[in-house]
């Protein structure tokens, strides 16, 4: 059986990838976690190069998917050393161990490697990150491509999917504010109507990753940089309107037409997905279909727990 190691399997994307692979029953999956170990995960701190080497040697996977990262832009801005350790050094260490054992490495990157001024962006467009998160992820891309020729970077935009807390995705993190703006005493909630995002459903990304793993298993490993994105442009204000509708909440939401973030964020980083599409890879679930599934699996109970 083809063996896949999913590094960071306790996160938003990692869980979706494991679910997709385990459902197939044709993959041998080894999943790692850090602060949130589960019954079927192996503990691994990706800042520990020796532990990575031992893990790869012991498990001898045919492929590794790196979903471990520090993905919160504000945290990366405040703690650049943590961003570097997780988003750059860990990628290099995992790719080096994978290279030694002849395994293919898929590393996940972000649309934030671009400055958002000239969309759409192709896989070979010039990156120009605006913030510490984007800079660290771009360095992580270089770390992968410099370390192994049997590797691939998959750039993704804003993700949402099955969650274990509202804060896990920048889409569902809007729900507590929407609910507060729907309560009798609540004030109207201002929502960003400036930045254009392409929310992308994690089960669709997991499907794409599975298709990429199949190419490798067939002896046609995809190398270099590829991108995958949903195709529905939305501001956070528009996302919030759709969430309020799905939750049947009569929330007072006001559009905020100028950015207010302290961490600079790009305006529109639409990622062209043509390289994967030309390989016959891809799936897009419409937002209107996907978001009710997410909300049904993690119902709003009027709490404000993040
Ligand atoms: N979320 C988005 O909107 C988005 C958009 C574009 C690209 N991406 C990229 O997609 C990838 C997955 O992101 P995500 O949203 O799934 O992130 P996430 O939900 O924050 O998950 C992060 C994962 O990293 C693990 N991790 C953190 N510190 C670790 C350490 N020291 N050692 C080992 N594992 C550690 C976490 O494990 P524990 O939880 O067990 O500690 C968790 O499994 C990242 O590369 C991210 O940059 C995300």
UniProtKB/TrEMBL annotation:
Pathway: Carbohydrate biosynthesis; dTDP-L-rhamnose biosynthesis. Keywords: NADP, Oxidoreductase. Its EC number is 1.1.1.133. Coiled coil: none annotated. The keyword Lyase does not apply. Residues 3-297 form the RmlD-like substrate binding domain. GO terms for biological process: dTDP-rhamnose biosynthetic process; S-adenosylmethionine biosynthetic process. One of its GO terms (cellular component) is methionine adenosyltransferase complex. It is an enzyme of class 1 (oxidoreductase). InterPro entries: dTDP_dehydrorham_reduct, NAD(P)-bd_dom_sf, RmlD-like-bd. It comes from the Bacteria. Binds 1 Mg(2+) ion per monomer. Its cofactor is Mg(2+). CDD domains: dTDP_HR_like_SDR_e. One of its GO terms (molecular function) is methionine adenosyltransferase regulator activity. The keyword NADP applies. It catalyses: dTDP-beta-L-rhamnose + NADP(+) = dTDP-4-dehydro-beta-L-rhamnose + NADPH + H(+). PANTHER family: DTDP-4-DEHYDRORHAMNOSE REDUCTASE, METHIONINE ADENOSYLTRANSFERASE 2 SUBUNIT BETA. Catalyzes the reduction of dTDP-6-deoxy-L-lyxo-4-hexulose to yield dTDP-L-rhamnose. Belongs to the dTDP-4-dehydrorhamnose reductase family. This is dTDP-4-dehydrorhamnose reductase. It comes from Paraburkholderia rhynchosiae. The gene is rmlD_2.
């Amino acid at each position: 059986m083809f063996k896949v190691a999913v590094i960071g399997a306790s996160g938003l994307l990692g869980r979706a990838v494991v679910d997709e692979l385990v459902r197939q029953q044709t993959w041998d999956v080894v999943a790692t976690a850090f602060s949130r170990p589960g019954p079927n995960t192996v503990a691994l701190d990706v800042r520990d190069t020796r532990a990575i080497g031992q893990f790869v040697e012991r498990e001898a996977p045919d492929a590794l998917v790196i979903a471990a990262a520090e993905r919160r832009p504000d945290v990366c801005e405040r703690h650049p050393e943590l961003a570097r350790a997780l988003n750059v050094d860990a990628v290099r260490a995992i790719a080096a161990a994978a290279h030694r054992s002849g395994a293919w490495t898929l590393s996940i990157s972000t649309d934030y490697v671009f400055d958002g001024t000239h969309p759409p962006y192709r896989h070979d467009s010039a990156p120009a990150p605006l913030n510490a998160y984007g800079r660290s992820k771009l360095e992580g891309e270089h770390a992968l491509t410099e370390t192994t020729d049997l590797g691939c970077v998959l750039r993704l935009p804003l993700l949402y999917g099955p969650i274990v807390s509202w804060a896990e995705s920048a889409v569902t993190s809007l729900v507590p504010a929407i609910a507060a703006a729907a309560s009798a005493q609540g004030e109207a909630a201002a929502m960003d109507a400036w930045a254009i995002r392409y929310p992308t459903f994690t089960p669709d990304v997991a499907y794409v990753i599975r298709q990429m793993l199949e190419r490798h298993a067939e002896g046609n490993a995809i190398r270099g940089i590829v991108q995958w994105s949903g195709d529905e442009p939305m501001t956070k204000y528009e996302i919030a309107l759709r969430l309020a509708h799905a939750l049947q909440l009569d929330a007072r939401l006001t559009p905020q037409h100028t950015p207010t973030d302290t961490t600079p964020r790009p305006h529109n980083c639409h990622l062209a997905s043509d390289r994967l599409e030309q390989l016959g890879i891809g799936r897009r679930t419409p937002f209107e279909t996907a978001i009710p599934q997410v909300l049904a699996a993690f119902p709003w109970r009027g709490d404000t727990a993040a």
